[in-house]
Amino acid sequence: MTLQQITASDIAGWDSLQDIASSFEKRGLKPRPKLGGDNELVVQLDDDEFIVIVNAGPGETAADFKPENRSRHTNLVATNDFETFTFITRVRSWEGQQHGRIKHQKISFSKEQFTRDSGEKNTILQKLNSIEYGSSAAIYDTLYDTQQVVKEFYEQFEELRTDLIQEVTGIPDDRGDAKQRYVQVILDRMIFLYFIQEKRLLDRNPNYLHEQPNEVVDKGGDHYEEFYEPLFFEYLAEDKQNPDFGSLPYLNGGLFARNPVEEEFEDAKLGGSAEETNGLFDDILDFLSDWNWNVDERLDIVDPKNLSPAILGHIFEQTVNQKEMGAYYTPEEITGFMARRTIHPYLLDQLNEAVDTDYDEIDNVFGFPVPEADSSAEAVADGGTITQQVPTENVQTSHVETLYHDILKETHILDPAVGSGAFLLAAQEVLMDLYMQCIEYFQRLEAEGQG
């Protein structure tokens, strides 16, 4: 069969589930009319992978249709009026790993986007036409590729950074790249603060950076000298408290300690007057607030203007990998691999010795079968459950209890060459997967009357 391209006019004509399925048949996907439930059509993407096309009911959203079945990783959800469409995919576990938290990726587009000539429209079409029968990797590698989002953010970020460098005062022009490094650390701090603001960690206020400077600083005052400088170097870095600044986390130096440029040039700042300084910090906030900040690590949204933790990691890679500064960012794939290869064998050694057994994989502890040999495991999300489960009779409860109470809780990880902390963050993810798998196993036992 000769594959055909999905076109903008095809999408403009998506008024039924069959219309959508017909478009994907042009890409070689095979209809499976005997599969699926009410308001669903199923097309086969690969030997053991399917896309379920769903028409949401009134008031329902794509989040109501997260795919949990292992053989149906992706749903394509159309709103009730067939105006907006959302792919949502259950992200594959790390290779060979079945335990741990279930995560999803999501990308949305609308018919309205295809009524005008735009790069956004062309990007969506390119992603859709990367999908073809036998190439399920396109779902993960192309459909949810964040390259365009990272590129757009970084271009705007670089433009803002260039403008701010011209506004630095207190640093002589002949001091090499000192102005660039000063601006970079200011922007790094503001990006970090914006992220934890979205997490409600700044006085539980999602608008803290927009509102609090005006609460603390009198009209006409300097927002940097009277708000940001004490915020950075006293209340975040040194665990001091000030009721005017609200409830803040203690971040223990690092990003919020004075860097060498700030120590050498104590008068360095953005702008030559309070009015200029305040305006420049407003420019930074305007730039950051122009983006949608998704801080749920379990849902990676790849929509335009959307920043997720994964995308911020790629952006951080762009801004930090600078050989001349001796700074490097290690990608999540590498740190995750290193953390699993370091932590899992240690935990297995401890558990095998404690319970006198011979587990060779963490998955074995939770009763997961070899994927090709058995498909009895199911992913469940009811009531907040966010890990994959197997029948409880496949698991030695006492072994999970030993892992949780005696081993995980006594495990400490030290990284002497901590750098940016990427390995420790990856280690946290590895341990969190194990904690959640244990906790939800115990909850399942209780629900079955065995707890």
Automatic annotation (TrEMBL):
Keywords: Methyltransferase, Transferase. It comes from the Archaea. InterPro entries: N4_N6_ade-DNA_methylase, SAM-dependent_MTases_sf. The keyword Translocase does not apply. Its EC number is 2.1.1.72. It is an enzyme of class 2 (transferase). One of its GO terms (molecular function) is site-specific DNA-methyltransferase (adenine-specific) activity. It catalyses: a 2'-deoxyadenosine in DNA + S-adenosyl-L-methionine = an N(6)-methyl-2'-deoxyadenosine in DNA + S-adenosyl-L-homocysteine + H(+). GO terms for biological process: methylation. The keyword Nucleus does not apply. PANTHER family: DNA METHYLTRANSFERASE A, DNA METHYLTRANSFERASE YEEA-RELATED. This is site-specific DNA-methyltransferase (adenine-specific). The lineage of its organism: Archaea, Methanobacteriati, Methanobacteriota, Stenosarchaea group, Halobacteria.
